[in-house]
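Example with several molecule types.
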Amino acid sequence: MPLSQSALITKLNTYAPLTSEEIASLTEVQSKPIVVRRGKELFHEGQHGQMVFIVQRGWASSYKDVPDGGRQIINFAIPGDCVGLRSVLLKESDHAFSALTDSTLRTIDAVRMTQLFEDFPRLRAGFLWSAARDEAMALEHLVGIGRRSAISRVAHFFLELAERLTLVGLATETQFHCPLNQYVLGDALGLSAIHVNRVLRGLRERGLLTVKSGVVLIHDLQGLGEIANYHSLNPRSQVSGSSQTGPPTQSLPTARLPNTRSDN
Amino acid sequence: MPLSQSALITKLNTYAPLTSEEIASLTEVQSKPIVVRRGKELFHEGQHGQMVFIVQRGWASSYKDVPDGGRQIINFAIPGDCVGLRSVLLKESDHAFSALTDSTLRTIDAVRMTQLFEDFPRLRAGFLWSAARDEAMALEHLVGIGRRSAISRVAHFFLELAERLTLVGLATETQFHCPLNQYVLGDALGLSAIHVNRVLRGLRERGLLTVKSGVVLIHDLQGLGEIANYHSLNPRSQVSGSSQTGPPTQSLPTARLPNTRSDN
DNA sequence: CGACGCTTTGACACAACTCAACAACCGTGG
DNA sequence: CCACGGTTGTTGAGTTGTGTCAAAGCGTCG
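Resulting structure tokens for the full complex:
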């Protein structure tokens, strides 16, 4: 069984060990591998998406277009990731999904997915748990864009990416391949591509991280963790961004409580 | 049955009509109403939150603190809203949750919730659908903060709020009560309170919207919809922000595709 | 070789933040 | 009744982070 196939299983196993029957059924409901070229739109916002995609090889992204011509990337999907669960629940997709590189994916039809979940409640629980985890990442993303400086955002992004890639064996402690150019990074981080460039230069000059021809080198995990104030998704591999070190990059406003009675 | 109690049921009914047995059980698993003062923290980030909160009266907020002293509000909970489902799935909460006004809530214990979902799959489906809807809102929020100008964000925020409040009978077409001060708004919208003030002035001067002593008055729904580029959560009550009208407030960068082959 | 995609840099503009001060409002207590 | 402090809203002046525009450098590939 190829790595990328087992990636999803490994992930679900983290939640609760799967029986061989569950694994067999999960494999069985999946379509044959689909190979797509980079740029291929798998589904668009508003589409009545009745299927889930599982990435086996390559990178993809979930995003929303804004009418002014820009877009916001919500999440990058890497091998082992499952995209579109929420779209199935909502009957129509609230975001678009495209391949960033040439990729291989499998799909699961919504109906078969539903059936699978009825037959194997533990699989349902596992998928829900995985979806909850993705949502937690999206929230962290929200906080980053809303309340963190550009440099902190970028540092945070690469740390999270490194951790995710490590989980599926696509990164070592200090380096990984990353096919995202600065335009794409900008769209993900809510920055202009040019500013991404400046921030990357800053990180490079501080000796923290280098991005060169599609390869990310992490020179100073600790230092990055401090700038990013990164908290690992996995409790064990905590980077421990010491919360009191260094001058705050930027001080941000704290809200006082509203002083209103409830009269609803 | 008080309005606020029926709000959740109404919401779930939108997904699929509930039987009286389902309604009875849903009511039965809930705790007695809990009355809290404004500022009360219901749970904090990282807490092993084994319960779900349902707001009956008052306003609350989900948020994450950032170490620099700022925070990002993820969502406001209004009567009928259910908070903490994801926390139950993840075993620990990825955000904090506090009352913004004096409020009344009910809780559902995680264990009883699980049992309820096993007994009534349609209730489970309803809750999941509701959660998916909340997440769709959070994503829209993400896009707003990442890719929209301040004025567009604020306009969008109030339109969405108006729609949500209308659904539970707490707003009319043109006005509603809103206990959020400018500091809180800033924390939600990724802006400083002072800038919120300036943006509100802008909206007022354009004759679009007024906020005065806790009451929001919408003067020009159409105009707001255009600035916000708002798309209704409910397909029927579309505000139809005409996508081609007016000069773009701000033009934003579009990413080109990365030119990298997949070699994962 | 030229075309293309991507990165890098500089100069400049502007949106949003900070600091500081003041005004309006409200409940409390003298 | 008025003085008071606390909270919130308003405004101005100055700063800064980030976006825009423009141009050049540099691999890679056909």
